[in-house]
Amino acid sequence: MDLYKQPAHVLHDMLENKEITAVEMTKNFIARINSFDNKIGAYITKMSDTALKTAETVDADIANGKKINFLTGLPGAVKDNICTLGTKTTCASEMLKNFVPPYNASVMEKLNKEKAIILGKTNMDEFAMGGSTENSAFFTTHNPWNTEYVPGGSSGGSAAAVASGLAAWALGSDTGGSIRQPASFCGIVGMKPTYGRVSRYGLIAYASSLDQIGPLTRDVTDCANILNIISGYDEKDSTSIKKDIPDYTKSLVQNVKGLKIGIPKEFFIEGMNKEVYTAVKKAVSDLEAMGAEVRNISLPHTKYAIAAYYLIAPAEATTNLSRYDGVSYGARVPGEDIVAMMTNTRTAKFGDEVKRRIMIGNYALSAGYYDAYYLKALKIRTLVKEDYDKAFEKVDIIVAPNAPTPAYKIGSIINDPLQMYLQDICTVPLNLAGLPGISLPCGFSRDGLPIGMQIIGKPLDEETIIKTAYTYEQSNDFHKKFSGVE
Amino acid sequence: MTNYEAVIGLEIHSELKTNTKIFCGCATTFGAPQNTHVCPVCLGLPGVLPVINKRVVEFAIKAGIALNCKINNYSKFDRKNYYYPDLPKNFQTSQYDLPIAEYGYIDIETKGKTKRIRITRIHMEEDAGKLVHSGNTIKDSASSNVDYNRTGVPLIEIVSEPDMRTPEEARAYMEKVKSVLEYIDVSNCKMEEGNLRADVNVSLRPVGTEKLGTKAEMKNLNSFKMVENALDYEIERQKEILEDGGCIVQETRTWDDGKGITLSMRTKEQAQDYRYMPEPDLVPIITTDEEIAAYKKNLPELPDARRTRLINDFGLSAYDASIITTSRAMAEYFDEVTNKGADAKLAANWIMGDLAKELNAENKNISESPVSAKNLADMIILIQKGTISSKIAKKVFGEMWQTKKTPETIVKEKGLVQITDTVAIEKIVDEVLSQNPKPVDDYKKGNKKSIGFLVGQVMKKSKGKANPVVVNKLLKEKLD
Q: pLDDT digits over A72-89, tens only?
C-alpha cells in the first residue's frame, strides 16, 4: 500500500489500529520528499529532525495507551508565511530569508497540541502575492500533474506537496483565492473558511482584512477534520469570531435533497475555458440528479471585484510591509546613511510583484487619490457583499468555477500582471465578502490537468459547503486519482 | 504700524496610566531596564496582531466626558503611515476620521477672566519607543539604539481649536487639561517623565481680521514653561518677519530649551502624507449610550465644580479656590484639613503658603508631605483655640516638617504654649518698662511707634509665648 497516496483519515486509522507507527509513517514521507521534491519544489525548509522527534513522542503516547487525535502523528506541511517558533519562516522572500520567529502562530499552537507532524515549510509566492508560485524568491514549484505547469498560487507549495504525496495534509492561506486556486490546479481539496473562523495570529500579513488560513487535503473528510482543529476564537486575534465551532465531521453526509444551489451567471461567461465550463456544469447537473434544486442567480458587481481587490489588498500590503526596513529584523543592505540603507534593503530584497503592489497601495492611499481609488474600492466591497447577501436569500449554496482555466505553463503569463490578476476573478469576491468557499476536483482537461469546482457558502456556514462537497465527492473518483510523480 | 494677534492651538499628548500597553500585555512601568517590557506584538514582529486594552478605551471615554466632549458610539482605529525607527511597524495605530470623542471644551482663567477653549477631538493611539544615542546628539553619535519599552504605551491626543490668543492662555489651558486628567485619574501627568507633552501651533494675524495667517508648529514641549517660552519666542519671531514685510513659512519647528529659540525642522514641502487607512486588524469600538451614562455617573468631582464648592461653602476667594483645586491631591488634602474642623481660610493660607513653599523646595508632591492633613488640621485648631500664636505655629510647622510629630507633642515638648495669663505677662511688661526708659519717654512725648519696640522686647523675654493681644493691651494701659 502506498502510504503517500492515502488521505489523512486513512493514515489516522492505521495509526490508531497500530498497523504502522508514527515514526515509520514519518520516515516514509521524509524518504519520499528526499526522492521527489527536487522535481516538485514544494518545500523551502524541511523539518525532518523535529518531525521524527515528534513522531517518537507520539509512538510513546500510543504505547502508553493514550488516545490520539485526528492529526496526531500525521505528517503534514505548513505554508511558509505561518510563523513557526525556532524554524525559519521566510514568506519566500529574500527579505525574511533568515527570519526565525520567536513565537508560534496560533494555528501552530493548535497543531502542536495535537502532536501533528510538521514535515516542513512550503513554497509560495513572495508574501503570498501571486497566483502561480512563480513569484517565490527562491524557486518555482511545479505542478505534480505536469511539471511544466504551475501549481497555482500563492499556496502552490502546500497544494503540490499534498497532490504529489509529499505531505498527507497541508495548511495554506487565502487572500484572493490562494488556497482554492492551487487546490483546483493540483486536483485536491482546499478550503477558505469564513473570515475570522481561523485565527490569523502569526500569519505574516499580506492583506489583513482578506487573509484567512485554511486546509489543503486529499479529500473532503480530511478537510472537515482539519477545520475542526484549526477553527475557533483566539483572544490574540480581535477579528476572530467568538462563536462555538460545530463538529464539521457531522456534515460528512450524502444528502443534497432539496438543497437550493445558485448558479451565478457572472461566473459562467463567454470566453472562459470550455473544459472548465463543461466540467463545472456537469458537476452541477450531477448534484441536481442527486436531488438538489438549481437556480440561476446574478451577482452583478462581480465584474468590479478584481479592480476593488487590487486596490484594497495592495493598500493593506503597503502598510503591512513597511516594517521591513532593514532596521529591526530581516535582511539589511548597507548604505551611506539610514535612508540609503533602507532604500537599498527594500530595493534588493523585495521581488518585482511585491514592489508593484507596494507602489499601487501607496498610490491608492495617497492624499490626492484616496477618495478616487481606495474609498471607492471599499464601496465596491460593500456592494459585492450585498450581492451575496441577496443571493443567499434565495439559495443555500453557490457553485462556480475556481479559475477561468486549468493550470497554465510556467512562464506563460508571469510577465503579464494584468492577465495574471484576471486569473483570480472567480475567487476574489469571496475574500471581499468574507465568505467561506471550497475547491474540489470535478474533472480533468484533455491534457490531463485537474479542474476544480468552487462551492460558496453563507458566512459561518461551512457545514453546508462540506455536506455538498462530500455528497458530490462520493459520487465520483476524481479525488482518488494520483498525480504522476513516481 | 499693524498690531498683530496670535492664534494658538494645542495638541496635548497624554500617556494613560494603564498597567499594560494599548495592544499587548506588556507592562508600562517607567524607568525599567531597556527593552525588558517588550513582546512580539509591541516589537511589530511579522505576523503579530494588536488587541485593544479595554482600559484604554475606558480612560479615553472618561477623559472625553470630563472635557465636555461628545462620546462617539462608533469609533475605529486607523493606520497612520509614519516612518520612524522607534515605531517598529513603521505605521502608528491611531484614530483618524472617527475618534472616540469630539466637540468638547474647557474654561480657563487668565487675569481674572474666564474664557472657553473648544476641544476639537480626543483620540487614542500608541506611543513610539525611544532612541538612545551614543553621543550627545544624533549627529555626533556613532550609533543609536532603540528602547522599545515605551512602544505601545497608550496615549490620548487632545486637540484644541485655535482659540487661544496669548502664551499665558496656552499655559492656562494646558494646566487645566492636566488638572482634569489628574482628577479623573487616567494619567500620572508627570511631565518630567513625558506623561504629558504638547505640540503647539501658532500663527499671527492683524488685530480685527478673521483670516488665519500661516502657522508654525512646535513639537514635544513637555513643560508649561516651555510652552510659554516657545510661544513668546515664536510670536516675536513671526512678528518681526511680518513687520519687515516677509512671509511666514509653514513648517515644523523645534524648541531649543537651552538656547531659548525655535529652529526649523521641516517645511510643508517635506510634510508627510500619512496615507491613513482603517486598521484591518482591529474591530470597531462600539459604546452604548447606557455605558456613556454609567461613566458619567461614576466620574469624580471635577476641578470647576470643586472650585465653585470651595467658594460657596467656605467663602474662599476665587483665586485661592483656583489654586487649591489645581491638583486633585491638593484639593483632597484641603478637604481633609477642613473636615477635621480647621478654619478654611487658615487652611488655605497654610497650604498655599508654608506647605507649598516646603514642598517646592524639596520638589515633593503633596501626597508625599511629611506634614499630614490631620496634623496640619490639629495645628490650625490650636491656633483657633489660642493655645499657640500664628508666630509659634510657624515654629511648630517647621518641627512637624522635620520630625512628623503631632503639633500637640511639639508644643508640649518645647513648651510653646501661649501665655495668656495676664498676671504673668504683666510681670514681664513691668520689667521691660523699667529697663527701657528711653522708648517709654519717646512714647509719652508722642512717638506712638515706639510701642512696637516694647512689644518686641516683651515677646523676646517670653520666648515668643506671650499672647501678643494681651501684651499690646497691657502696654497701652500702662503707658497711656
A: 999 999 999 999 999 999
Distance from CA of B186 to the nearest CA of A (A): 24
Cell numbers standing for residue A287: 448534484
| pTM of the entire predicted model | 0.90
Q: Is A328 on the interface with B (CB under 8 A)?
A: yes
Q: What are phi and psi of B253, to 5 degrees?
A: -125, 155
A271 pLDDT higher than 80: no
Residues 62-91 of chain A with CB under 8 A from chain B are 81-83, 89, 91
CB pairs under 8 A between A and B: 95
Closest CA to B200 of B5, B7, B3, B4: B7
Contacts of B24 (CB under 8 A, 6+ apart): B39, B41, B42, B50, B51, B152
Q: A101–B46: do the CB atoms touch at under 8 Å?
A: yes
Q: What is the pLDDT of residues B23-58, one digit of tens each?
A: 999 999 998 999 999 999 999 999 999 999 999 999
Indicate which residue of A93, A106, A136, A154 is catalytic. Answer: A154
Told to judge if A366 belongs to the known catalytic residues of this protein, a careful annotator would answer: no
Query: Torsion-angle region of residue A431: left (phi > 0), alpha (psi -120 to 50) or beta?
Result: alpha
Side chain identity, residue A181: Q
User: How, if at all, do strands B216-221 and B251-256 pair?
Assistant: parallel
Annotated active-site residue A154? The verdict is yes
Return the amino acid letter for B451.
I
How far apart, in whole angstroms, are the C-alpha atoms of residue A92 and residue A129?
Answer: 10
A79 is catalytic: yes
Please list every residue in chain A whose beta carbon sits closer than 8 Å to the beta carbon of residue B51.
Answer: 235-238
pLDDT tens per residue, range B230-263: 999 999 999 999 999 999 999 999 999 889 999 9
ipTM of the prediction: 0.95
Provide the angle, in degrees to the nearest 10, between the axes of the packed helices A302-320 and A352-365: 100
Is the peptide bond between A155 and the residue preceding it cis, with omega within 30 degrees of 0?
no
- The residue from A93, A106, A158, A178 that is catalytic is A178
